[in-house]
Amino acid sequence: MEPTKALMIVFLVVLSSLIRFSVCRENYASPPSLPKAHYQEALLRLNKLKTSIDVGSPSPSPGENESGVFLVTLYGADPTGNSDSTEAILRAIQDATRIPSKKRHLMPGVTDLGGAQINLQGGNYLISHPLRLPAAGFGNLMIHGGTIRASENFPPSRYLIDLSETSNKGNKTQKASPNPSQYNYEYITLKDLLLDSNFKGGGISIMNSLRISIHNCYITHFTTNGIEVQGGHETFIHNTFLGQHITAGADPDERSFSGTGISLAGNDNVVTDVVVFSASVGIMLSGEANTISGVHCYNKATAFGGTGIYMKLPGLTQTRIVNSYMDYTSIVAEDPFQLHISGSFFLGDANVVLKSKSGFINGVNIVNNMFSGSNSGVEIVHLDQSNCPFKQIDQVVVDQNIVKGMNLKATVARGSSKGNGTSWTVDFSKILLFPNLIRHVQYSLLSMSGNEFPQYALRNVSHNRVVVESNKIVQAQVYVTVNQCSDI
């Protein structure tokens, strides 16, 4: 507390005590005819004056905030969205990233800001250029609780929130710490935000960063990417809605939807409980070892040229897609390697497309999914071999999927043939995924001709048709199981 203010408060307290003493004396010593209202009114005015003075510590200026919570309106940000708030919010970010007196680190070279928060206070803020941290090398920071919209002057193809190490002028910034780090930022949380790109660019860009969390956000009106992740790893995106246009499906302009909801060009990222409701591509994956779970894509129907999830990393996919909902939009994987798709629902002829770029496919599981279509002859798993046929095929399992109104495809199949003769053929060509490929066959012959014990053998498996022949004419039924992927 300031010394002058403290002395003033002491003076007022002493003065109040003297007046109380004087009033008490008048109550007993003054003549009965002397009015007491004068003293009572003076005492009341003094009490009001005393209570109007804040006896606590003076409020710090925004730049002197020691609580770790930075309220953007204290820096002059306009929560009504009528005026530009860019510089005010950047000043709040500048203060939040001041190096603490007791310096701590997360990863080497990443300064721990101690959980500092940029609080948007539920406001609606207009910005004219990206919101960025003043330098690379910060961590343990949250931006949350409001709406950010791009103004008409926002530069095209930029992002509302930009976590990269390039300044607004395109120059490289200095590190927040002299210690070198391979990551720009660590443990930055973007939470409870509505980001409106106003068809100027994208929503969030994260470059070469570690353990970034995007939670409960609504990102719309982007032209490039709703969320872009380049390099780094362990970005978690969850409970988030993304759409270029605000719609709830069956939009008359769906054919014109463009942009990408989420672009992951990094490793070990997780997308959970996310809805992409309008974009040309829902999720683009060009990094390894990513997990997609609980995602609903109805961004743009495949019939209109859209794709729900596109894996563009031939030979290095290593992606798991589980418990998701592909709503009229498909999954595409180029030369997939270690790809797992299970527990998902494909509606409206949505399917899985395995696209050959160099003819390589290995370690693919597409199992335990549900497919529902329009009886238009669409295959649940389709091979796109327009570039070149798949030539290196190993450990591919497509099995145990539930299908209605679409053509079943699998790498494991069972069938039988019944007749009187010496040859039985079981044709799997309509079911097996890969043409002219059977690597393992199990078969048995059930004779119905009394005591006949014919000799029989497997004679041919070409063109996905299994032929079993016997040495004599017999009434029999042949049971066959085939596998395209391996002997296991």
Automatic annotation (TrEMBL):
Keywords: Cell wall, Secreted, Signal. It comes from the Eukaryota. Gene3D superfamilies: Single-stranded right-handed beta-helix, Pectin lyase-like. Its main location: secreted. One of its GO terms (molecular function) is polygalacturonase activity. Residues 1-24 form the signal peptide. Residues 72-301 form the Rhamnogalacturonase A/B/Epimerase-like pectate lyase domain. It holds the Pfam family Pect-lyase_RHGA_epim. It is found in: Secreted, Cell wall. PANTHER family: POLYGALACTURONASE QRT3. This is Rhamnogalacturonase A/B/Epimerase-like pectate lyase domain-containing protein. It comes from Acacia crassicarpa (northern wattle).
